[in-house]
Design goal:
The structure holds three protein chains of three kinds.
Chain A lengths: L14 E9 L2 E10 L5 E5 L6 H8 L6 E6 L5 H4 L3 E4 L13 H7 L13 H13 L15 H14 L4 E5 L7 H16 L3 E5 L3 H7 L2 E5 L3 E6 H4 L2 H8 L4 H12 L10
Parallel strand pairs in A: 3-7, 3-8, 5-6, 6-7
Antiparallel strand pairs in A: 1-2, 1-4, 8-9
Chain B lengths: L1 H26 L3 H22 L4 H25 L4 H22 L8 H6 L9 E4 L8 E5 H19 L1 H9 L1 H6 L4 H23 L3 H16 L3 H26 L3 H29 L1 H4 L1
Antiparallel strand pairs in B: 1-2
Chain C lengths: L1 H6 L1 H13 L3 H26 L5 H20 L4 H25 L4 H25 L10 H4 L7 H20 L1 H9 L1 H6 L4 H23 L4 H12 L6 H25 L5 H19 L5 H30 L9 H7 L4 H13 L3 E3 L4 E3 L1 H25 L3 H11 L5 H10 L25
Antiparallel strand pairs in C: 1-2
Classes of the chains: A alpha/beta, B mainly alpha, C mainly alpha.
Chain lengths: 268, 296, 450
């Protein structure tokens, strides 16, 4: 499926085509397609349970039951992994894990390392710079359970930074962080944008979305709207996004998954 | 006296291998699958023996690894296809495998030098008598290189240790954050089954020494003690081994004193060490809670 | 030796007859006892399963072992009641440890379970080996509780077992609604003022009691399966908790009958493993053959759906062809159909054959033509397809290509009432987003002169 203008300019950092996802039989996302511009900060916005985090996970291939595809700079995920950094939600991991801050950040370098390779001095330097950028260098030897919520978030961001990616996918980086961390993240966004990098964030705060981001993708089980803030941040789109789902669409899609109708077609 | 040394040496290697593998089971929250594999490995051993009529180490390892991986895979499939909770599917699979194993043992009791007892305890006290002899026994031209169980667990220990050293960073990433590992392009499923292979090999090599069930204690308990105190993965691995070795020494003494099963006493000592660690930590945290008032 | 008597068919047969004639009154007792145990353990295990603590029973059974040994050491008696109280005490200790560890230390729930299980078991084995080294009376047979031995049970054992099993069953009947509520959502139960902790404690006590009395029959090691496997199997048969529990009790009882017989026919065989194997067989049968939720049923349903979808797709294709010819030309050949719908030739031909058989189309040398009933169905499908396209376009702002793909699927499952709902919502739409006319619901074939 070629985009009509894909030959005229460089391929989009992230282009999603017909992405559908479900949880057991419940449809979470139905037929989402969009393409984002390069060098912008982009927010994925929607109510609770709208499928925002699921969308990011689907894009990164972290969830089963996916239909459709995502391409990165015109290529598949496996070819472009080095260029993509994913920042998951903090709740996902065991903060009691015996590991210190520097080691967590160094994990960001593992994608580039062979099985038997150890992080080199260069890797350590990169990790150091990432930690300094987020003002976490002083904590480098702390065990991660001894950090505050905001500090934990900054460690995650430093790890993504150490990956030296060109596309950053972040799952609610602003959730439950202190003011200092929020400021640090904003600074980081500015810095990354200057370097021409693209940032996609799941975001839930409508008050700040216009201020922090250039672009918005409205999601509520399906794509409502996607585009520059000034164009799509309208009352109409907000109403559609937060105004509840289309019950008939929801019911029938669930029915479709329950009967496994999506697998019953010989052709498509 | 040499017998005691062989017993302690074998127990030490068993405990160390289990502790190393157990660290990853604890961190990946797969203690229960470790429990399951250690049970179902019995079936692998019995089947391998009935089919090939041999107790050679590669055959035992092969049988156990196949059954171990099958346990992991079937539990996972049952969870997905049958829509059962994952611990329930684990429980159904391993009890079945273990039950078949026990039935086969009692059916072919005459042909297998295994009985229900040694499935439970192992026979570490008899380990020194089943030795490997190189050369011609009748002509007395060869020499005895030591107990079979010792060499078995020795080889497995080497495999486990070198796997961990080589793939330390991968294992760390996967244990700490599977979804990050996946997003970095690491094949998490491969590493999951790799770990299951290590668990299967460790349990089968430990089988002669400690039996099918006590091995769970050695897999889980020293690693948990280390989890409580360690602040890095490397430290946790070292501490788990440390705890396990301490348990071997205390357990051996305990067994000597009470005239009880050596393997059970080692497992009990591992547990006691864990409880001492917990108690010490509880006291520490209580003291810390009392102190801030003075220090503020 | 015993292995060979088992394989000797005539002896098995006479022994089996002897079993069912109940010449041995003790045998009847054992049978009744094991059925009761199978039933009560399955039912109480059902709640552990629903509380998502399926393997707690495993840990508790292992945790009973040191209690039995301590009771023997302290009282030097093998009175069932003494053993029972010892086992219940140590099982309860295990239960609290499983609960306490994750709440008060960094240790996670799964590790807490494995730690408790293996530590208590090791302690039990250590005590057992210690006892076996002592000079005390009637110590033999203590190890029978590891794998269970129905034949070794005394009348006293069975009486205790029966009382406990009946107590457990009646508690479940009595507190069924409370237990169900707590299993479903403990938080909600707490908000409406139910003393959740008290009921959880009772539930734990019932689990511990069932486990403990089951030890002599099934054994420490495999008790988990008796609690867990029946309810997992029963779940495939029903969606209603009361039915699930009744079915799992039946399965538990059935497996008890099977394993007691085998244990009688081959006395050297431990009972527990056979009970587990027969339970697992029942589980596999349920997994495969249960109506509605069994894998076989799910597979045939899916095949049926595939067929239906293929048939309906061809009818729709014929309708589209008809439309292109302005409903004048009515017969189309294979090539026409294939031009519009890419489908493997083989399945296309078999589907056409099916449609002929259902008298939805007729075939002639020129090709295929829809019958009146076939046309009505095709029209209905087309109407649903296009209505759905309109709905998506109007409410979900999708591109025409997107809506077409979705409608291709949804057309097969839209019901009549949903169709009416659609028609109401889209009051005056005559054509679909591609500009095709939506056939109305009470038309005849245009150009049909009948």
């Amino acid at each position: 499926m070629k985009q009509p203008n894909s030959n005229t300019h460089t391929p989009s950092p992230l282009s999603v085509q017909h992405l559908s996802m479900r949880y057991h039989h419940k449809p979470v996302l139905t037929d989402v397609s969009f393409e984002i511009p390069e060098g912008k900060t982009i927010a994925i916005v929607g109510p609770n349970g709208a499928g925002k985090s699921t969308l990011l996970k689907g894009i990164m291939g972290l969830e089963p039951n996916i239909e459709g595809q995502a391409s990165f700079f015109g290529e598949s995920l496996d070819k472009k992994r080095q260029a993509i950094a994913y920042v998951p939600q903090r709740e996902e991991i065991d903060w009691d894990f015996p590991i210190n801050v520097l080691d967590v950040v160094l994990m960001g370098r593992h994608g580039q390392l062979k099985l038997w390779q150890r992080p080199s001095q260069l890797d350590i330097d990169i990790a150091e710079q990432a930690l300094k950028d987020l003002k976490m260098w002083d904590f480098k030897n702390r065990q991660i359970s001894q950090l505050s919520g905001g500090q934990q978030q900054r460690v995650f961001l430093a790890r993504a930074l150490a990956q030296q990616a060109t596309l950053y996918l972040m799952d609610e980086p602003f959730a439950g962080v202190d003011v200092a961390t929020e400021q640090a993240i904003i600074e980081l966004f500015k810095e990354l944008k200057l370097q021409g990098k693209t940032i996609v964030c799941v975001h839930h705060d409508l008050n700040t979305v216009g201020e922090y981001f250039d672009w918005i993708i409205f999601i509520n089980a399906r794509l409502i709207a996607a585009g520059p803030v000034e164009e799509v941040l309208t009352k109409e789109n907000l109403n559609k996004t937060y105004g509840g789902r289309l019950s008939l669409l929801n019911d029938l899609t669930e029915q479709m998954y329950r009967t496994q109708l999506n697998k019953a077609h010989d052709t498509d | 006296m040499t017998n005691d040394i062989w017993i302690i040496a074998t127990a030490a290697l068993v405990a160390a291998s289990c502790a190393l593998v157990g660290v990853f089971l604890i961190l990946r929250r797969q203690a229960l699958i470790g429990d399951a594999i250690s049970h179902s490995v019995l079936l692998g051993i019995v089947l391998a023996y009935l089919i090939t009529d041999s107790r050679a180490l590669p055959i035992m390892l092969g049988g156990a690894v196949i059954i171990g991986l099958l346990t992991a895979w079937l539990s996972d499939s049952l969870h997905r296809v049958g829509k059962l909770q994952s611990d329930a599917s684990i429980g159904i699979i391993f009890t079945l495998f273990f039950a078949i194993g026990v039935i086969l043992i009692s059916l072919y009791a005459g042909q297998i030098d295994l009985d229900q007892e040694c499935v439970l305890y192992g026979e570490i006290a008899f380990v020194p008598f089943d030795t490997i002899y190189i050369g011609n026994l009748a002509a007395e031209s060869g020499f005895d290189i030591g107990p079979r169980a010792f060499w078995g667990i020795g080889i497995v220990f080497t495999i486990v240790l070198s796997s961990i050293i080589i793939s330390f960073n991968r294992l760390k990433t996967i244990a700490f954050h599977p979804s990050l590992a996946l997003s970095l392009g690491i094949n998490v499923i491969f590493w999951h089954y790799f770990l299951m292979t290590l668990v299967s090999m460790t349990t089968v090599a430990s089988f002669d020494a400690v039996g099918a069930i006590l091995v769970v204690a050695l897999l889980v308990i020293p690693a948990s003690s280390a989890y409580l105190v360690a602040r890095s993965l490397k430290a946790m691995l070292w501490m788990a081994v440390g705890y396990s070795q301490l348990a071997v020494l205390i357990g051996y003494a305990l067994a000597f004193w009470l005239d009880s099963s050596i393997s059970a006493s080692i497992a009990v000592s591992a547990g006691l060490l864990l409880f001492v660690t917990i108690a010490w930590q509880q006291v520490q945290s209580q003291r810390r809670q009392r102190q801030p008032i003075d220090s503020l | 030796m015993d292995a060979f008597t088992l394989l000797d068919t005539p002896t098995v047969w006479t022994n089996w007859l002897a079993f069912w004639s109940f010449d041995d009154i003790n045998l009847l007792w054992v049978l009744v006892g094991s059925i009761l145990l199978g039933m009560s353990a399955s039912v109480i295990g059902g709640f552990a399963f629903l509380r998502k603590r399926s393997l707690v029973g495993d840990a508790l059974a292992h945790a009973a072992l040191p209690g039995v040994m301590m009771a023997f050491l302290l009282f030097e008696s093998r009175d069932p009641l003494v053993m029972f109280l010892g086992a219940v005490t140590s099982s309860f200790l295990g239960f609290f440890l499983i609960d306490w560890l994750p709440k008060n230390t960094k240790i996670k729930a799964d590790a807490a379970l494995a730690i408790t299980l293996s530590f208590f078991f090791a302690l039990g084995l250590m005590l057992l080996s210690y006892i076996q080294g002592l000079e005390v009376d009637n110590k033999s047979g203590l190890d029978k509780i590891l794998f269970g031995q129905a034949a070794a049970m005394t009348q006293k054992d069975i009486k205790l077992l029966a009382y406990v099993a009946l107590f457990v069953l009646s508690c479940v009947v009595l507190f069924f609604h409370k237990f169900r509520l707590i299993a479903f959502s403990a938080t909600y139960a707490r908000t409406i003022g139910i003393a959740v902790n008290r009921y959880e404690l009772l539930l734990a006590l019932l689990i511990v009691m069932s486990v403990v009395v089951g030890l002599q029959l099934v054994g420490v090691v495999l008790m988990a399966a008796v609690l867990l496997t029946p309810v997992a199997a029963a779940r495939f048969w029903s969606n209603q908790l009361s039915h699930i529990l009744i079915i799992s009790a039946l399965l538990g009882g059935l497996s008890a009958i099977i394993s007691t017989q085998i244990s009688y026919l081959a006395p050297a065989m431990p009972t527990g493993p056979w009970m587990v194997v027969s339970l697992s067989a029942l589980f596999i049968i349920s997994l495969l053959f249960a109506p509605e939720k069994g894998l076989l049923k799910r597979y045939t349903e899916h095949q049926k759906l595939r067929k239906k979808v293929a048939e309906e797709n061809i009818l729709r294709t014929l309708y589209k062809l008809l439309e292109r010819k302005n409903f004048q030309h009515k017969t189309f050949n294979l090539a026409d159909i294939q031009a519009l719908r890419s489908m493997p030739l083989e399945s296309l031909q078999s589907t056409l054959k099916q449609l002929c058989k259902k008298a939805l189309i007729t075939s002639s040398t020129e090709g295929f033509e829809m019958t009146t009933s076939g046309f009505e169905l095709a029209e209905q499908l087309t109407r649903r397809h296009r209505l759905w396209e309109n709905y998506l376009t109007e409410h979900a702002e999708l591109t025409p290509q997107q809506v077409h793909q979705q409608a291709e699927r949804i057309e097969h499952i839209l019901t009549e009432s949903q169709e009416l709902q659609l028609q109401e919502e889209l009051a005056n739409s005559q054509s679909d987003p591609h500009g095709n006319l939506i056939p109305s619901s009470n038309s005849t074939i245009p150009g049909e002169s009948k």
